[in-house]
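Translate sequence into structure tokens.
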Amino acid sequence: MKNFLALIFGWYAQDIVQIMMTQTFLAPEIYLMMLIWCVTREKQPSVPWRWFAAALCGGLLMDLRWIGVPGLYGALYTAAVLAAHWAWFQIPSANRRTLPYVVITTLLCAVMTLSRLLFWDTGVLAGRIGLVIGVQWIANAAVLIFLALVRSRLHDEKSF
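Result follows.
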């Protein structure tokens, strides 16, 4: 239940940050980072259906709220959850710590950033794509550093 509340908080936080950025910059991928957090907390390699459902629902809400292509981000978030789950369980259990979480999250956030740029209004991006990506990645780094610090403090070596 705590994980679902964290996902709801992550979705609302990302939405509020996107509202404050008034469609001139991309918000950090807070919801995706929280999804990956939940998926990498799983102890068994069974299929995480509840996180697939959460990714699909959260992505669909994001679609309906912002870009208007229902199902696009739902599919992208679900694919990211699948990729994170697969990558996490390819790592030996003794090495499933904060660093692999950070690497997996960074790679999936990069893919999500590229997909968001592909479907974003080109008029907004005109001549400032580097600035848009830079601002989002500074925000992504801040959120990810915070999550990595929390993760390293909360979860000891025996919890995985």
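Note: Residues 2-159 form one domain.
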